[in-house]
Design goal:
By secondary structure, the protein is mainly β. Strands 2, 4, 5, 6, 9, 10 and 11 form a 7-stranded mixed β-sheet that branches. It has a 4-stranded antiparallel β-sheet with strand order 1-3-8-7, with no helix packed on it.
């Protein structure tokens, strides 16, 4: 049974930081590109970042370039998203994915 479980969401003030984690089980974690997405209220799901299987290559969407950092620990079957300089527009549910598998999401709220 495949599971991806996100954690680390919460509420933060503008300018703050959060670190999301996504731990996988039931898959050969180290062979997958891993991705983070988010979905705000009333908006489509937005791709944020991708990391290659070995972690050497990373790609970011325009809205998060320079603020977010994706990383992974294959030994722990975990992918991370370090989010800095958060703004209210970053509010939403954040999801990780590996291939066709998705987590259940974790809520991030940025508000003063």
């Amino acid at each position: 049974q495949v599971q991806l479980v996100e954690s680390g969401g919460g509420s933060v003030q503008p300018g703050g930081s959060l670190r999301l984690s996504c731990t996988a089980s039931g898959i050969r974690f180290s062979i997958y590109d891993l991705r983070w997405y988010r979905q705000g209220s009333g908006t489509q799901r937005e791709w944020l970042a991708t990391i290659s299987p070995d972690g050497d290559d990373t790609y970011y969407g325009d809205s998060v370039t320079g603020r977010f950092i994706i990383s992974r620990d294959n030994a722990e079957s975990t992918v991370y998203l370090q989010m800095n300089h958060l703004q209210p527009d970053d509010t939403g549910v954040y999801y990780c994915s590996a291939g066709t598998y998705w987590g259940q999401g974790t809520q991030v709220t940025v508000s003063s």
